[in-house]
Amino acid sequence: MSYPLAVVVPTYNRCDALKQCLAHLEAQARKDFEVVIVDDGSTDSTEAWVADYLKRTPLSIRYFRQKNSGPARARNFAVSVIEAPITLLIGDDIFPAPQFTALHMQLHEERPEASVVGLGLTVWDEAGQQVTPFMRWLDTDGMQFNYGELLRGVRPDWKHFYTSNLSLKTSLLRRYPFDESFPYAAMEDIEAACRIEAEHGLEMVFLPDAVAYHLHPMNFRLACRRMEKVGESAAYFDELWPDKLPRKPSALASRLSKMLKRLPLAVTLLEGIANQSLKVACPNRLMRFVLSYYFDQGYERYIRRQASQPGAAAD
Description:
With 315 residues, the protein is of the alpha/beta class.
């Protein structure tokens, strides 16, 4: 049977979340879609559970398994086997509301142009986790997502190409696959959008009623570790697209960062103080500085690693 839409779900070692994701897909008001799951080498109970689930689910599901290679390769593989003209990208920790698939499909039925991309609204799942002010800031201020400005009426562009809740023509994704060379699962989605915008043209359409709930507990210390990885991926992005996302740290922040690199214990202490500061105010300047510091460390680590590669140009 052919379907107008394929929902792509990369998964890795989050079987419990995947169960909830699929339960929410079962509850969709519009059901004429298939689900393509790509297991990125999970070592938990995912494979066994899916094998049993396939015997009883009302969903049309295809399940594939690959060696652990990251979500970019998982999504690229899924797109290579999809027959549906529309692809809807989510994650295994994304729980769609009942009208989710209907609203994404309606957009593409009304707007068949290849350049049109639907961006739904991802919010924190309130039922499965304690949502802190810091987590809300991550979603609205751009450190993770930047939905706040979209809800205020800003027109989305390629920088809002969030693969947690995104639909587009399958043919476009085949022509512009995700770059699997990114050092971490960060910014490979934004880079794909930048490439599409530059070479083809891209029209992002915000669908605030196409809501999906995100189950991913996050605290400040985890965000610091994440920012190091984002920094490395940003450095690779800048190699590909110089000056597309210019960074402009303040002179004071740059001097403090250089000083802290020589004082690792001070960095640990400052991170702890910043973490405690969130109990008083979120966001605050100290919190922002520490996150930026870790981003810069990741960025510089990538540059140093590239410079040490055989054949790298000498200064």
